[in-house]
């Protein structure tokens, strides 16, 4: 089969790799129908995730069909169409028993495309399939469902739930990439008074408006002052960091009000300064987290009911074998306007869907 293989920092290719096979009784083999590319994949290619070994097939999000399953798999059968979660869960360790699947100590957690071969291939082996894949209704398109493998659970759990968004809050989302946009959509479910989006790219700020942001600000045009102006100088009740660079995290700490909550979602590859000299007296709560995907069943029901704007986040689609081109488009989002790039699915358009 073919897969997208990491060869070292700055090096990856779509090439022949061995077919996966059931190696444990809890495994399932999935024929990949749709995948997407995550910002974390770009971090890997840059060399920011050193535990990813050269020779690893990348990717941790997919929709596909079960083609084989081990003898202990009970919840899915060959022929079932499923969502492959970005998080694998053993279901037995202390963390899994607390639904903290991202912290699994039984051989799960974030392993696909990280510690074992991932989903950006024609087939993928999924360990602990009973808890790590989700059957899909026929009415939900593959290209919409694949966005529930990672970005929507991440935005919802690590951003909105960790930030404890409540009715009447002012919510600032720093970073209007795919996860930031999903956080805007998810925050709206909790009836905040206003949502403010901050980003560098005009196209992403326009997308934020369409997905429900009440105000937007270019990061170079004093977004902190805009937040202050809209909150009588107090600051935002909840600030969600969805970039993963020191400057954005430090901006978030300046935008949160006393007693407020800062939910860090971004994947940080460099140290960020925590200005405790300013924050120690402000009763600010700062949370971090790797997604658990415990919310995936709920989000699947909501997507099936049309309550999540998945389609609005997809700007480019390609056949699976155009992986290298898709990575190029996604990595140049400032030029291409890319939000989510989907490969496979029911449509294989090779041009951008208009962002504005």
UniProtKB/TrEMBL annotation:
Entries under InterPro entries matching the protein: ADH-like_C, ADH-like_N, ADH_Zn_CS, ER, GroES-like_sf, NAD(P)-bd_dom_sf
The family this protein is said to belong to: Belongs to the zinc-containing alcohol dehydrogenase family.
Start and end residues of each Enoyl reductase (ER) domain: 8-343
Cofactors demanded by this protein: Zn(2+)
Domain of life: Bacteria
PANTHER family recorded: NADP-DEPENDENT ISOPROPANOL DEHYDROGENASE (PTHR42813:SF4), ZINC-TYPE ALCOHOL DEHYDROGENASE-LIKE (PTHR42813)
Keyword Secreted applies: no
Coiled-coil residue spans: none
Listed PROSITE patterns: ADH_ZINC
Organism name: Streptomyces cinerochromogenes
Pfam family for this entry, one: ADH_N
The protein's name: Zinc-dependent alcohol dehydrogenase family protein
Swiss-Prot/TrEMBL keywords: Metal-binding, Oxidoreductase, Zinc
């Amino acid at each position: 089969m073919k897969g997208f293989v990491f060869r070292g920092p700055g090096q990856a290719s779509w090439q022949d790799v061995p077919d996966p096979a059931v190696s444990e009784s809890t495994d399932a083999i999935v024929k990949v129908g749709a995948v997407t590319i995550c910002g974390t994949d770009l971090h890997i290619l840059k060399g920011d995730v050193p535990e990813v070994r050269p020779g690893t097939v990348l990717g941790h999000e997919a929709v596909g069909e079960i083609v084989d399953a081990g003898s202990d798999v009970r919840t899915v059968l060959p022929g079932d169409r499923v969502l492959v979660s970005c998080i694998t869960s053993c279901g037995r360790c202390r963390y899994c028993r607390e639904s903290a699947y991202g912290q699994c100590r039984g051989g799960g957690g974030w392993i696909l495309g990280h510690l074992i071969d991932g989903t950006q291939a024609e087939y993928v082996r999924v360990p602990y399939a009973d808890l790590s894949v989700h059957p899909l209704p026929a009415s939900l398109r593959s290209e919409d469902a694949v966005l529930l493998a990672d970005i929507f659970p991440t935005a919802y759990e690590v951003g909105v739930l960790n930030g404890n968004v409540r009715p009447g809050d002012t919510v600032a989302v720093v970073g209007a990439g795919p996860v930031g946009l999903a956080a805007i959509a998810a925050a709206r479910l909790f009836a905040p008074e206003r949502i403010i989006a901050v980003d560098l790219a005009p196209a992403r700020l326009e997308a934020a408006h369409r997905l429900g942001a009440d105000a937007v600000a270019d990061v170079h045009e004093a977004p902190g002052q805009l937040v202050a102006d809209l909150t009588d100088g107090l600051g935002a009740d909840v600030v969600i960091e969805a970039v993963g660079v020191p400057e954005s995290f430090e901006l978030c700490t300046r935008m949160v009000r006393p007693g407020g909550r800062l939910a860090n979602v971004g994947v940080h590859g460099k140290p960020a300064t925590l200005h405790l000299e300013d924050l120690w007296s402000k009763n600010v709560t700062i949370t971090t987290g790797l997604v658990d995907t415990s919310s995936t069943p709920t989000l699947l029901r909501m997507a099936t009911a049309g309550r999540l704007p998945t389609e609005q986040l997809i700007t480019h689609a390609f056949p699976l074998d155009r992986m290298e081109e898709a990575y190029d488009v996604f990595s140049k989002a400032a030029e291409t306007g890319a939000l989510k790039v989907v490969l496979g699915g029911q449509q294989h358009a090779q041009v951008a869907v208009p962002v504005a």
